[in-house]
Amino acid sequence: ALLPYVPRVPPAALLGKLTATTFALEKPCCVFDRHANASDTVWLVVAFANASATFRNPLSRADVPPYERLPTTHSYMTLEAAATAYACSAPSPAVLRVGGDTACGSQGGWDPCNGPLPSPGPYRVKFLVMGCHGPKAETRWSDPILLRRAGSPSTIDPAPARCSSDVVVIASILAGLGAVLAAAVLSAVGAEAWGSLCHRDSGTGAGARRSYRTHHIPPALPQPLPPGCRCSPPGLGCFAPRPPGPRPAE
C-alpha cells in the first residue's frame, strides 16, 4: 500500500537539525496503525536524490541494502523498529536522527547501521513496512534534503587580515584625539583640585592667625607713693619716716 504520508525535516527551529553528516526527521506517529501488525517492522530507506526512482523494495530482510554499500548502491535501509514504536500511544521522542551512529564499522555488514552520511547529498527518504512475507506498505519519498557543507581548510587564511592605509590613518587620528581629550580633562581636574587645596590652606592660616592674636595691654603707669613715704636708695624700696620723740634705748 502507498501511504499519503511524506517524510520531512521538522520545520521548527531545532539544534542540529541539519549538519554536515546528519539530519533530523519528524517521527511518523499514527501512520502505520491500520497497515502493520505487532510483528511487523518499519524501516527508513535513505537514497541519493537522483537514485530514489530506481530503488526497489527488498523482498526479505536478507535483501536489505546495508549502510556500507551506499557508495555503490546509492541507497541503504536503517532505523529498523517494531511497528508498535510508531503507534499513536507510543511515548517516544518526536524526532529521528539520521546518520547519528558513529560506531557502524564495528557492527558488521548485516546490521542496520545508521552511520554518518558521507556527502551533503541531496538525499530522499521514505518509510517501509515489512512483514514476514515482504513489504506491506510504504510512504512517499521526501523532498530532497541537502546537508550543510563544511568549510575546506584550504580556504581558511591563517594570516590575520591586514588593514588598509586609510583605516590606519583614521585609527591614528582617533587615537590622537582621544589622547588630547584625556589630557584636557586631566588638566581641568588637576587645576580644580589645586585651587580647592590653595583655598583651604589660606583659610586655615587666617584662622590660625586669628586664634593666636593677643589682646592689647597698655603699659603700666607709675603709681603715686602713699603719703609720708619717701624713697630709699635703689633696691631698698620705700619706707615711712620715724615719728619725732625719744628714741628707744638700745
Automatic annotation (TrEMBL):
This is UPK3B protein. The chain crosses the membrane at residues 167-191. Coiled coil: none annotated. Keywords: Membrane, Transmembrane, Transmembrane helix. One of its GO terms (cellular component) is membrane. InterPro entries: Uroplakin-3. The gene is Upk3b. The keyword Membrane applies.
